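Here is the promised in-class demo. Please do not try to memorize the tokens; focus on the logic of going from shape to residues.
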């Protein structure tokens, strides 16, 4: 059974629809929905006495096993409701944690889910162990000792400490991978957006990948990274991340900080938005709020309005007064608008090619070999002193890379004043 109480400070009907989607994503059979209204929640049971009687009657009538509340319940409220309803009671946070536990497949994802679950459970330990809240007794166990509840809290604390240390190691490994990408000067683009906006579908279509995509909330949990070739000269790393949601529990945000680090360290955030969603502005605001919580609000961002195939929109690029791209309209399903997206990525990260010359002495065979290996040489002629004059088509990034590898000065490259703009 689902319970939703309309409170003045919430966007009620939209929240209820999202809650129903969450429940279905958890593979739960929802038998009935109880809706009520209150100015403020009851401190004891969240709902009023009359509504509690109505819920208890329906629980008995339909033989309900679990009652799900579309709200954050305090431990005491959860405990009082279970005592009155005589069945298990879960709040919105517990439901989201259950979905995450089902969807976590990677080692890191499982660690993060367990950490979030334990932090949530730590405040609710007393619920399951009130009958054991006494000191251990018996031969060899008499004396001060500790209660069962204290033992559980201590073991829980040890496990949380262990999980945090393992996640720190995972974070160091991710940091090493990011450093390698930075050294190779490969830009990283992070797909973010409200859950079920179509991020994974777009990710799969662009990278020809097979990341799990489904019409359900939190279909993606583990981050996936793939290389995306924009053209012969430019490749980027595209990261598919977990979807955001309103009222995302803070424990979850904290537990998934390592995963969301990909978003914080990205060179560009691609914010995917469902363009046919009536409440898209509220969902945009919710995503911006989570980005601010993880410290990614300062990262450059571009909005991608997805699912134009479901509406009467044409693929296009919306630009600001100075010509910078702000929004791209596309369809991840049909592929319409992909050229526009790649065009915008190239505008941000593509290198303008230069026509330039460099003189290579006979002793610099390694430099000549490196330029030929990178397919940069357009023409070669020999001078009277035996050195070779190489005509190149090269980008700034390639110049920096060769200078770093062979420890030569960039002054060696005599760049023509004519910039070959637009040459890919």
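The designed amino acids, position by position:
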């Amino acid at each position: 059974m689902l319970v939703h109480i309309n409170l003045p400070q919430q966007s009620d009907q939209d929240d209820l629809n999202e809650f129903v989607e969450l429940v279905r994503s958890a593979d739960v059979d929802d038998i009935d929905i109880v809706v009520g209204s209150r100015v403020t929640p009851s401190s004891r049971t969240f709902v009023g006495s009359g509504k509690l009687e109505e819920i208890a009657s329906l629980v008995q009538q339909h033989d309900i096993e679990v009652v799900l509340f579309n709200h954050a319940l305090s431990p005491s409220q959860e405990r009082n409701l279970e005592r009155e309803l005589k069945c298990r009671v879960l709040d919105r946070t517990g439901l989201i944690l259950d979905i995450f536990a089902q969807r976590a497949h990677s080692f890191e994802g499982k660690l993060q889910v367990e950490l979030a679950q334990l932090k949530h459970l730590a405040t609710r330990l007393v619920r399951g162990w009130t009958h054991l809240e006494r000191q251990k007794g018996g031969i060899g166990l008499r004396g001060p000792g500790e209660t069962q509840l204290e033992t559980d809290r201590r073991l829980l604390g040890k496990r949380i400490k262990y999980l945090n240390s393992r996640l720190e190691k995972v974070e160091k490994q991710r940091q090493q991978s990011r450093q390698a990408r930075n050294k190779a000067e490969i830009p990283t683009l992070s797909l973010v957006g409200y859950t079920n906006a179509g991020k994974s579908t777009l990710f799969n279509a662009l990278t020809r990948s097979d990341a799990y995509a489904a019409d359900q909330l939190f279909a993606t949990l583990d981050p996936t990274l793939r290389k995306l070739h924009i053209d012969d000269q430019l490749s980027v790393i595209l990261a598919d991340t977990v979807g955001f949601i309103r009222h995302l529990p803070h424990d979850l945000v904290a537990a998934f900080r390592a995963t969301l680090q990909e978003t914080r360290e990205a060179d560009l955030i691609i914010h995917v938005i469902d363009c046919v969603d009536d409440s898209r502005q509220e969902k945009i605001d919710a995503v911006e709020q989570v980005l601010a919580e993880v410290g990614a609000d300062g990262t450059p961002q571009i909005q991608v309005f997805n699912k134009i195939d479901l509406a009467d929109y044409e693929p296009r690029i919306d630009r600001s007064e100075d010509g910078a791209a702000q929004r791209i309209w596309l369809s991840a399903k049909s592929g319409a608008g992909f050229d526009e997206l790649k065009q915008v990525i190239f505008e941000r990260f593509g290198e303008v090619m230069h026509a330039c010359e460099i003189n290579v002495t006979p002793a610099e065979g390694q430099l000549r070999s490196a330029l030929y290996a990178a397919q940069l040489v357009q023409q070669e002629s020999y001078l009277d002193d035996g050195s070779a004059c190489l005509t190149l088509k090269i980008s700034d990034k390639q110049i920096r890379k060769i200078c770093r590898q062979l420890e030569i000065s960039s002054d060696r490259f005599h760049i023509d004043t004519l910039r070959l703009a637009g040459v890919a």
